[in-house]
Automatic annotation (TrEMBL):
<dbReference type="GO" id="GO:0015833">
    <property type="term" value="P:peptide transport"/>
</dbReference>
<feature type="domain" description="ABC transporter">
    <location>
        <begin position="13"/>
        <end position="254"/>
    </location>
</feature>
<keyword id="KW-0547">Nucleotide-binding</keyword>
<protein>
    <submittedName>
        <fullName>Peptide ABC transporter ATP-binding protein</fullName>
    </submittedName>
</protein>
<dbReference type="InterPro" id="IPR017871">
    <property type="entry name" value="ABC_transporter-like_CS"/>
</dbReference>
<feature type="compositionally biased region" description="Basic and acidic residues">
    <location>
        <begin position="263"/>
        <end position="284"/>
    </location>
</feature>
<dbReference type="InterPro" id="IPR027417">
    <property type="entry name" value="P-loop_NTPase"/>
</dbReference>
<dbReference type="InterPro" id="IPR050319">
    <property type="entry name" value="ABC_transp_ATP-bind"/>
</dbReference>
<feature type="region of interest" description="Disordered">
    <location>
        <begin position="247"/>
        <end position="284"/>
    </location>
</feature>
<keyword id="KW-0813">Transport</keyword>
<keyword id="KW-0067">ATP-binding</keyword>
<dbReference type="Pfam" id="PF00005">
    <property type="entry name" value="ABC_tran"/>
</dbReference>
<dbReference type="InterPro" id="IPR013563">
    <property type="entry name" value="Oligopep_ABC_C"/>
</dbReference>
<dbReference type="GO" id="GO:0005524">
    <property type="term" value="F:ATP binding"/>
</dbReference>
<dbReference type="GO" id="GO:0016887">
    <property type="term" value="F:ATP hydrolysis activity"/>
</dbReference>
<dbReference type="Pfam" id="PF08352">
    <property type="entry name" value="oligo_HPY"/>
</dbReference>
<dbReference type="InterPro" id="IPR003439">
    <property type="entry name" value="ABC_transporter-like_ATP-bd"/>
</dbReference>
Length: 284
């Protein structure tokens, strides 16, 4: 990476903590995010990878104002957005948007695509003419007449393209991508990832790309941060973290990632067995 590593970050997270109260009076609180610090620069993709329950989605929700910030700060440029109220949060919608995991549940099946794409523009007080809708559809390589149809008429990959177009409607500088390809088949995943890369190259948008799949995040990221039990245990250049991971947990993720080469897959299987044996020996 070149300029983005020395420029002022678009998004800066410092010593972030997220805690939830226990479900009952006697239950201990859940400490979900623990002292996390991370930067995201213009035109950069930071992959946030970890298994289910690692805290990666909660970190994304905290950035979006959907999870409580118990400590630390989140800055969007020079503005502290850690604890904004609902009205203030709407004021930064132009800067930060999200693409959710499931394209089947994130789009209203009874609305036309034109209405879905116009909704964020109208909510922010902007005009939402058909030319704008056609432009958004064109950006995600969908035909102009798609605007008159409803979400139920599209495949999963096409629905995710519509979700991306909706996120782009307000021209954000940061896009939170929360497992955006995990509900798609492999060939459709590749097309959506290529689309995200194309959009980034054209617009200079920054992505926080949240996923459990180290291979997927390697394909789109400049840097990768690895989360375990609410903490970032490794962060670095995407190639280094993917191919030469330093932390044992990242090594475990690497060994779990499928590869097309049967010889390499067999070698990884054996390394996983050796890793599991060493973990058991350490715990004794």
């Amino acid at each position: 990476m070149s300029d983005s590593t020395v420029s002022t970050p678009l998004l800066s997270i410092r010593d972030l903590d997220v805690r939830y109260p226990g479900r009952t009076f006697r239950s201990p609180e859940a400490h979900v995010i623990k002292n996390v610090s991370l930067d995201l620069h213009a035109g950069e993709t930071v992959g946030l990878v970890g298994e289910s329950g690692s805290g990666k989605t909660t970190l994304g929700r905290a950035i979006l104002g959907l999870a409580p910030v118990s400590g630390g700060t989140i800055h969007m440029g020079s503005r502290d957005i850690s604890r904004l109220g609902r009205k203030e949060r709407r004021s930064i919608a132009n800067s930060i948007q999200v693409v959710f995991q499931n394209p089947y549940s994130s789009l209203n099946p009874s609305m036309t695509i034109e209405d879905i794409l116009a909704e964020p523009l109208l909510a922010s007080g902007q005009k939402a003419g058909r030319e704008m809708v056609r432009s958004l559809l064109d950006q995600v390589h969908l035909p102009a007449d798609a605007g008159a149809r409803t979400a139920r008429e599209f495949s999963g990959g096409q629905r995710q393209r519509i979700a991306i177009a909706r996120a782009l409607a307000l021209s954000p500088s940061v896009l939170i991508c929360d497992e955006p390809t995990s509900a798609l088949d492999l060939s459709t995943q590749a097309k959506v990832l290529d689309l995200l890369v194309e959009i980034q190259e054209e617009k200079g948008i920054a992505y926080l790309f949240i996923t459990h799949d180290l291979a997927v995040v390697r394909a789109v990221s400049h840097r990768i941060a690895v989360m375990l039990n609410g903490e970032i245990v490794e962060v670095g250049d995407a190639e280094q973290v993917s191919d030469r991971p330093a932390h044992p947990y990242t090594q475990k993720l690497q060994m779990s990632a499928p590869v097309a080469d049967p010889v390499e897959q067999k070698a990884r299987r054996e390394r996983r067995r050796e890793f599991a044996r060493s973990e058991r020996a350490t715990s004794l």
